[in-house]
Amino acid sequence: MNLSRAVGYIIRNEQRRTERSQETVQESTVRRRIRNEADNRRRPKRVCIRNDVEEHNCGTMSEQCGFCGAVYWKEEKNTAHKYTICCHDGKVQLPAFPDAPELLKALLTENSPDAKNYRQRIREYNSAFAFASMGAQIKPPRGTGPYCYCLHGQVYHRVSPLYASDQHKESYGQLYIFDS
User: Fold this and answer.
1) pTM more than 0.70
2) Owning domain of residue 83
3) Where is this region: Disordered (predicted)?
């Protein structure tokens, strides 16, 4: 694409943005309905449904790793007839998980109104606390291949402060605070 053509696209897009910013709600609704109807006409009308697909049953996960106790399907044995994906014949040993805090145990096991409420809304609570970012140091790759980045060191999650300090520019979650 040559430069004049790219500039033409940019100018046309800016004109469209300006026009759309001046639309009434009704005009915007009509424009979107027309666009959606055109998109629907381009989509295929028929969907191929097959009823002759055979069921495949893997059986039960009845096999166990002799080292760590991980469960497997019988067909997951390697060429040496062992299950090694989990702990590589006992070479990898992870420490046991620490006990859950008492409050969390109570919320997961008791039948109190608070515990029932917690279990009903557990996904909402998880989503609320999942507002974290991944931190990494990015080192540009050598060569002319496609863009990618390598993560070096420990990958961890962090939640930034609600407000940026005077020395730092707003980033991540701080950008979502419009009026405080």
Assistant:
1) no
2) 63-129
3) 15-37
Same domain, 14 and 68: no
Integer Cα distance of 131 and 177 in angstroms = 14
Q: With residue 15 as reference, give the H or E element that holds it.
A: helix 3-21
Of 86, 101, 129, which marks where a domain is finished? 129
* Cα 69 off chain centre by: 30
Q: Work out how many domains the chain is built from and give that number.
A: 2
Residue 163 lies in a domain: no
Give the pairing of strands 138-139 and 156-158.
unpaired
Which pLDDT belongs to residue 117? 94
Answer whether residue 80 is part of any domain: yes
Distance CA 31, CA 22 (A): 13
pLDDT tens by residue, 82-102: 888 888 888 988 888 889 899
Residues 67 and 124 in one domain: yes
